[in-house]
Amino acid sequence: MKNSSQYIQNLKKLFSILKKGDEKSKKPVYHDPIEAIVFAVLCEESTESRAKAALKKIQSHFVDFNDLRVARAEEIAEVIGRDIEESEKCAIRLTSLLNAIFQKYDCLLPEDLTNTGKKGIKEILEKFNGMTGFISRYIMVTVFNSHAVPLTEKMIQYLKAYDAVESELENEQIVAFVERQISAVNAYTFYTLVRHDSELANPKAAQLLAEKKPRADKKPKAKK
User: Scanning 82, 112, 130, 160, which has its CA 20 to 30 A from the CA of 99?
Assistant: First the structure.
């Protein structure tokens, strides 16, 4: 990576700025990994608030996640409605993932999965039809407390805009770079802060970074 030290510095500076004045984000508690998977699918291409609204609609309409698994994509898309962009595409991904899990374990609460080591879980997740890098990392960091930083496309573009990552890199390379710089203990906090700021019309980072820039009309003091 070209000028990696500069990107590392910019990334850590951005993280430091976002942390100021914000309480540490509380990681959600998922008693059912499938709920985390469904939420991750919903929020990959929408805001978390819209994804939460869509999840509530799903839980109210369907008996359980197995009922969701066998539902038609058109029905799911109609239930989540305008909360999720490209709702039918999202619905197809949901059923693909849930069916992939069911076909492997013959249920949606696989003990074989939850009792597998973190490395094994990650490898299993990545093989499921419909899985994406964002979804698998969201599951790893929230459900299994693993060192992972899920990044949406919008978050990646946000990091590029503030020169926190090299724009020429592929998305997976960018995620790998971020994970090397952000410790496991800070992974979820980094995710939530960057995610929330990237979704604002006027990002906090833009305001604070602008304040830190020296004024153009401010002349340096003359040396005595």
Answer: 82
